Amino acid sequence: MDIQAAVLERPEGTLSSYKISIETLELEGPRDDEVLVRVTSCGVCGTDRGCIHGIEPYPAPGVLGHEGAGIVEDVGRSVTLVKPGDRVIMGFPYCGVCRNCRGGQPRYCESLGTLLFSGYRADGSSPIKRRDGGALAGRFFQQSSWSTHTVALERQLAKVPDHVDHDLMGPLGCSISTGSGTVLNELKPHPGSSIAIFGAGAVGLSAVMAARLTGATTIIAIDKDERRLSLARELGATHTISGSDRLAEQVKDATHGGVDYAIESTNGSNLVAEACASLDMLGICAMVGGAAPTAEVKLTHPDMLQHGKRLIGIMGGGGQTPAYHLALMELQAAGRFPLEKLVRPYAFADVNTAIADSDSGDVVKPILHMN
Ligand SMILES: [Zn+2]
Ligand SMILES: [Zn+2]
Q1: What three-state secondary structure class fits 47?
Q2: How far, in Å, from the CA of 110 to the mean position of ligand 1?
Q3: Nearest ligand, CA of residue 117?
Q4: Three-class DSSP category at 150
Q5: Domains of the chain, start order
């Protein structure tokens, strides 16, 4: 079938050059374990922008988008969990058969890198092509949902209840679950504890909203952008720290010695060392922000060892499952997880404006609307 999709190209052949334009492409029907989704909306995430700007890997020409929401139009022969007409969001893909998938940790699927960034199915095929037959990487996060239609894996879908605005929920597929899941599924701050969140983008602000749902009594948001810190306070931050200098010292000053938990959510700033230094004894730092494949972290060995600190990597908020997505949807509908405050809607045709507004920091979470 014919679809409209936002195609990324490298007109000068370099990673720094890019052009995104909406094109008519051909999409094939769903395979046995796949679902055809009419995409109604899709978020713009830091990882899309990382790929556009050549920081994270993605082949061009190709289609990005990995926070898609939409309506099921057709299902493959073995699909049982959804049917045509169901409203769904598309989350992280996973293979379902490797050691970690079978062990209940699909975020650490052994094929995750290929499934997210290769632009192709695990067997190397792409469900979309140009009308002249030209190949395209059409499987970003196995969904490439900057598109009016896509085919995705049944197991990466979560159904959306009738009373929930499904077009607001696409970002649960990545950034919103990454920030909130790190707090609610992994760190689980204890009553009376303190948490410092480095970076107040969609991931960091989701962590702030999640921390407010726990017994943590000190929630510190850190960013260079005062507008985002203002929003962080509105969403539940008890303290904010502005700028990029002496961050660990400022956190320690605000907490009489350091925090119990820290989250590094920046996309490329790599403040992991600063976040670890801001911990109190026995504190835990979670690194969750995307970075270049060659990015390194340098820590002070005695500080980590003698103070019993821990540093952990967390992908996609850890336990990101359909049940977790449903929990966030119900919390949002009940007014306890106001993710709508992060969002600005854009028409699909304005995809380049949405990217630019996200790059500049003017908008936390653009959502493209396909109709
Ligand atoms: Zn797997
Ligand atoms: Zn993302």
Answers
A1: helix
A2: 5
A3: 2
A4: strand
A5: 2-174+319-369 (3.90.180.10), 180-313 (3.40.50.720)
